[in-house]
Design goal:
The strands form four sheets. The chain has a seven-stranded mixed beta sheet, sandwiched between helices. A three-stranded antiparallel beta sheet has the order 11-14-13. A two-stranded parallel sheet has the order 1-12. The longest helix has 25 residues. α2 packs across α10 and α11 runs parallel beside α13. By secondary structure, the chain is α/β, with parallel strands linked by helices. α5 links the parallel β3 and β4. 43% of the residues lie in helices and 13% in strands.
Length: 398
């Protein structure tokens, strides 16, 4: 039979990263595509112990829970947020199925068709997917390695009257950039002045390579969470494991309340089994020491990829050393198309994400993103050598 889908589905697109990951499953392709943590550092035994402690509580551990999420875990997260000068109560917080659901819920309760959202250039491609489903319009704001250009931001706020500004100011996806304090305070002040909500996405903030550096969240710079114009989301996916599918979002109680209603309609609540296990994990496992371990390892892997990119001395290839996060953002010579390069690269046994889907407007087709956290040393060396040969092949044929 013929199926008639809703108008909203016309804006749905498949994730470029997910499609590339399909190509690399079950075969010998080395993938630098997905933002995957290193499996060797998942706290397997600690999670096993945490789950056992949950199950020792008996059948009640398997019962329905609150839409807002397991209260003891929210209380623990409030304490962790306070260490970052984000002083909230559980009433300011909603636990979600990863921070991706935070994006979905906030756009669902905030955006109408044809609303404008200002974004970085480039920005997180899955956020652009959600905007497509909402039939909202992303508009790029110019920026550089220090963050959004504040003059361009204010000009576009005045011109477009956006409902929302979406940013990843700390080790952004895909570029890995980190905003300086002037740009952080500037966006907070400008959006307060013009009455625009900021959505701060912070999945990578814990993965900073210099422990002496401080990158205050926009949420902390905005002051009290009551009547705040910043909504903040983060996740356990990068610090514990993606499979626990647990994130959180904090903000003004009115926004969190509306998102909670939307979540009730979507899935009643996220997995309380996972939330209880995370609570037990935080009680009995030194998460901060674990984060230090993965920071050090990811920094080492980043340095290795940086050296491999550098040593091949490929003409016209540009990239910067990230201060944290999971990605290198690479620019090829302007006459090359990264999507065409990818097709050939996969046949040679290596994959990456072309930059095109990360752009809201005017994509730079010569860009690409590389993940350095997943591959071990041997795999990375083999994969980067192959990728360098692919780049050289395209340069020689032009």
């Amino acid at each position: 039979m013929d199926f008639v889908f809703s108008q909203a589905t016309r804006g749905l697109t498949s994730s470029a990263v997910r499609e590339i990951l399909k190509l690399t499953q079950g075969n010998s392709v080395i993938s630098f595509a997905g933002g995957l943590p290193a499996e060797q550092f998942f706290p397997v035994q600690a999670m096993r112990d945490a789950l056992n402690r949950v199950m020792d509580q008996g059948p009640r551990a398997l019962q329905y829970g609150l839409t807002e999420g397991f209260t003891p875990l929210r209380e623990q997260l409030c304490a962790r947020m306070a260490r970052k000068n984000m002083h909230v109560t559980p009433d300011h917080m909603l636990l979600t199925t990863g921070s991706q659901q935070s994006i979905d819920l906030l756009t669902r309760v905030l955006l109408d068709k044809d609303d404008v959202v200002l974004v970085e250039d480039p920005t997180y491609l899955a956020f652009l997917q959600v905007l497509g489903s909402a039939q909202a319009h992303p508009v790029k704001v110019d920026g550089d390695e220090h963050g959004m250009n504040l003059a361009d931001l204010e000009a576009k706020i005045i011109k477009h009257k956006p409902k929302l500004v979406y940013v990843i100011p700390t080790f952004s996806n895909p570029t890995g950039r980190v905003w300086n304090l002037e740009r952080r305070q500037g966006i907070v002040d400008l959006c307060r002045k013009h009455g625009v909500l900021i959505f701060e996405d912070d999945p990578y903030g814990e993965i900073k390579f210099d422990s002496g550096e401080s990158f205050p969240s926009l949420f902390s710079l905005a002051g009290s969470p009551d009547d705040s114009h910043v909504v903040y989301t983060s996740t356990f996916s990068k610090t514990v494991a993606p499979a626990v599918r647990t994130g959180w979002v904090i903000g003004d109680k009115r926004i969190i309340g509306m998102m909670t209603r939307a979540k009730q309609a979507a899935d009643l609540h996220s997995s309380t089994l996972d939330q209880q296990a995370l609570y037990q994990l935080l009680c009995h496992f030194d998460l901060d020491a674990h984060i230090t371990t993965i920071r050090d390892e990811y920094k080492r892997r980043m340095k290795l990829m940086y050296s491999l990119l550098s040593e091949h001395n490929i003409p016209g290839l540009t990239f910067s050393e990230p201060k944290g996060g999971m990605f290198f953002w690479v620019e090829l010579p302007e006459f090359l198309d990264a999507e065409a390069v990818l097709k050939h690269a996969v046949t040679e046994g290596v994959a990456f994400v072309p930059g095109t889907p990360f752009f809201a407007q005017e994509p730079k087709r010569n860009t690409l993103r590389l993940n350095y956290t997943f591959a071990d040393d041997d795999t990375m060396v083999r994969g980067m050598n192959t990728l360098a040969n692919v780049f050289k092949h395209f340069l020689q044929t032009k």
